[in-house]
Amino acid sequence: MSKAKLEYIWLDGYFPTQNMRSKTKIEENFSGKLEDCPIWSFDGSSTKQAEGNSSDCLLKPVAIFPDPTRDNGYLVMTEVLNPDGTPHETNHRAKIDDDDNDFWFGFEQEYFIMDNHTQLPLGFPVGGYPGPQGMYYCSVGGKNTHGRQFVEEHADICIAAGINFEGINQEVACGQWEFQIFAKGAKNAGDQVWVARYILDRLTESYGYYIEYHPKPVKGDWNGSGMHANFSNSLLRNAGSKDVYEAVCEAFRPVAKEHIAVYGEFNDQRLTGLHETASIHDFSYGISDRGASIRIPIATVERGWKGWLEDRRPASNGDPYKIAGRIVKTVKSAKIEATA
């Protein structure tokens, strides 16, 4: 009789930055299908999601991936529910208005790899600094490239798990890397980013590293970390009109503060108008402009205004569920002329 290891992953109740939690459920003769993953429970009083005198919260499986690192293992992303089956207040996935999966998202997750012993990014000497920015971005060679074996292993695990992993590259700062995830459906995109993060964090346990998602962990003339959100829906993919794109971008202007509120903690330290960012106090958009709040990719223009947009404001520690949910709401609010 075979036994499977199901790793149930959920987001806790810490605010404003939630953390991943997980525990293993052993199931006999498991089919590998999401519909055969039972609802489970956990002690919400230990995760800031319930009081001790009524501490049970429920875990509802919403996505499943094979776990290449464990024999007969699976990674199960879940939503947190109240005991009566309603979404918990910390469950932001359930709030996304994209049940038809019309929205497609591509998230670019930046992060720093930190050495557990020095508490510094890889490549940073104790008591000093490495060479200035310039040679780290997409570099090759041991002088400027740090952590490649770890990053390659993460990519291999994600691909083997069936995550729609689109690429990796070293970023502008020393010890900083990025991976990209694409998915059709806002909820699906969030699921895949969170599971890819889980794999990344768990892998650090074997290397003596940890991942720093803070958007500005190294002060001074160093790039911060973001999680650029590339997005489209059927309107943007088929628009064929500059006016439609400008109308969608303009819909973001009056709700800029609402977006920033869910785009990640400490983002003010990153969105300064420097290091390829727009100021947190401004809103702008432009074609091929990496210093704008929203970039209109040149590929979208060249395809006759059919494509996607890139919101460059989300921070690396942002919740993809919150980010996607807010973007979906704003795009749906855009006032498009009937003749467009």
Automatic annotation (TrEMBL):
Say which enzyme class the record assigns: ligase
Where would I find the GS catalytic domain in this sequence?
A: 83-340
Q: Which residues form the GS beta-grasp domain?
A: 4-85
Q: Which reaction does it catalyse?
A: L-glutamate + NH4(+) + ATP = L-glutamine + ADP + phosphate + H(+)
Q: Which domain of life is it from?
A: Bacteria
Pfam families xrefs: Gln-synt_C, Gln-synt_N
Keyword annotations from UniProtKB, A to Z: ATP-binding, Ligase, Nucleotide-binding
Family membership, please give it: Belongs to the glutamine synthetase family.
Function comment: Catalyzes the ATP-dependent biosynthesis of glutamine from glutamate and ammonia.
Oligomer status and interactors? Homooctamer and homotetramer.
What's the protein here called?
A: Glutamine synthetase
Give the source species: Muriicola marianensis
Q: What is the lineage of its organism?
A: Bacteria, Pseudomonadati, Bacteroidota, Flavobacteriia, Flavobacteriales
